[in-house]
Write a structure and sequence with these properties.
The protein has about 375 residues and is mostly helical. The chain is built from 18 helices and no strands. It is globular, with a radius of gyration of 20 Å. About 55% of the residues are buried. Keywords: Membrane, Transmembrane, Transmembrane helix. It comes from Xenoophorus captivus. It is found in: Membrane.
């Protein structure tokens, strides 16, 4: 008798995984988004140029992407749970060592290399888990998980500003390192999918074959570099490089730009919070839209990306608080729309079986844009 195909759970414990991924996104992406609060403090402390200071965050972004293939390979060989816990330890260690304030190159190593690698080792497996646990509800599940970056960014923006004023930027880094230690707790909640569904697959050889694509079995636990032969993935990687070169710049330079216009105290931090709220709305809206199947992900993505590019071109014309706030809100919403579908689109290109490897390659090459974007933007900063 032909066995019934058992695919991803599409619910159940998957929602615990989504909740855990929600906090992983917040404790990694939201922290990175609020690095701009430390920008002026570090620049003033070491007395260096804007472009020199920006190498701290640029190195973090680059290592976040460069570490992706290693994170994907370790995920395939070990488990998402183990890799996330290692990532949490690296993030904590990076921030704790950065708080020692030994030198600017020391910050490149700690806030840059260690923190960036830790973010990669936490972020990549969390995204992998969500995509493997869901099929029908994958777009909305990913949108909810990724919205943790926005929700905690809203909280972290004024919190980081307050921590810097109360405990100095060194003390703030120490406390943030303690917060990121909770990534290990999130990792512990990531129950491997194979453990849940492996028992039910033993009853039928045919059932096992049908589910091989859905479950990351040990026979398929090999990083697939051959995916680079797919022209669709190469074009998508090219898109990622250009996107990363420009789309990380506003979160880094909006606070210094607002300060240069005479906007002081907590108002620049409020801009980041509003942008995070708009980002959240964009992710949830576009996740819902993708789930309704009105448009394919690969049709929706270029539309929102084009609109986002137009907003970025218009952003510099804002010369007062309210105009900057409007453009930042539009940027946040459209950025959220793009984020909601840009990772799940990889499944459409390489299938779920090749998703982990495809995501690793995608992030690796995207590091080129992330590495050159912020310093290039710093040279043009007023």
């Amino acid at each position: 008798m032909k066995s019934r195909r058992v695919g991803p759970p599409d619910g159940g414990y998957g929602w615990v995984v989504v909740a855990s991924a929600f906090f992983v996104m917040g404790l990694t992406g939201a922290v990175l988004k609020n690095f701009s609060h430390f920008f002026l403090e570090i620049q003033s402390h070491f007395g260096v140029m804007t472009s020199t200071t920006s190498w701290v965050s640029s190195t973090t972004i680059a290592m976040f992407h460069i570490g992706a293939p290693a994170a994907s390979a370790l995920t395939l060989q070990l488990s998402q749970r183990a890799v996330i816990i290692v990532g949490g330890l690296l993030c904590t260690l990076g921030m704790l060592l950065a708080s020692l304030d030994l030198s600017l190159p020391w910050l490149y190593l700690t806030m840059g290399v260690l923190e960036g690698t830790g973010i990669s080792f936490s972020w990549i497996p969390a995204i992998s888990m969500v995509n493997h646990y869901f099929s029908r509800w994958r777009p909305i599940a990913y949108a909810i998980a990724s919205s943790g970056e926005c929700v905690l960014a809203i909280v972290f923006s004024p919190l980081f500003k307050w921590l810097i004023e109360m405990y100095s930027w060194q003390g703030a880094l120490l406390i943030i390192g303690g917060l990121q230690f909770n990534l290990c707790v999130c990792g512990a909640l990531m129950r491997p999918l194979e453990a849940n569904w492996g028992a039910s697959q033993k009853t039928s050889k045919e059932g096992s074959e049908e589910n091989a694509a859905a479950l990351p079995s040990k026979k398929k636990a090999v990083f697939q570099c051959c995916l680079l032969k797919k022209p669709e993935l190469l074009l998508y990687i090219l898109f990622a490089i250009f996107a990363a070169a420009g789309f990380f710049i506003p979160t880094l330079y909006l606070v210094p730009f607002a300060n240069s216009l005479g906007i002081d105290k907590y108002w620049p931090a409020f801009i980041l919070s509003v942008m995070a709220v708009a980002d959240l709305a964009g992710r949830l809206f576009c996740g819902w839209l993708a789930n309704m199947r009105f448009l394919r992900n690969l049709q929706l993505l270029p539309t929102v990306t084009t609109l986002l590019g137009v907003v970025l071109l218009l952003l510099p014309i804002g010369h007062n608080y309210w105009s900057i706030l409007v453009f930042a809100s539009l940027y946040g919403f459209l950025f959220g729309c793009m984020v909601a579908v840009h990772v799940t689109s990889i499944v459409d290109i390489v299938s779920l079986e090749g998703f982990d490897s495809g995501l690793g390659l995608f992030m690796l090459f995207r590091s080129i844009g992330g590495f050159i974007g912020p310093p290039a933007g710093g040279k043009e900063f007023v």
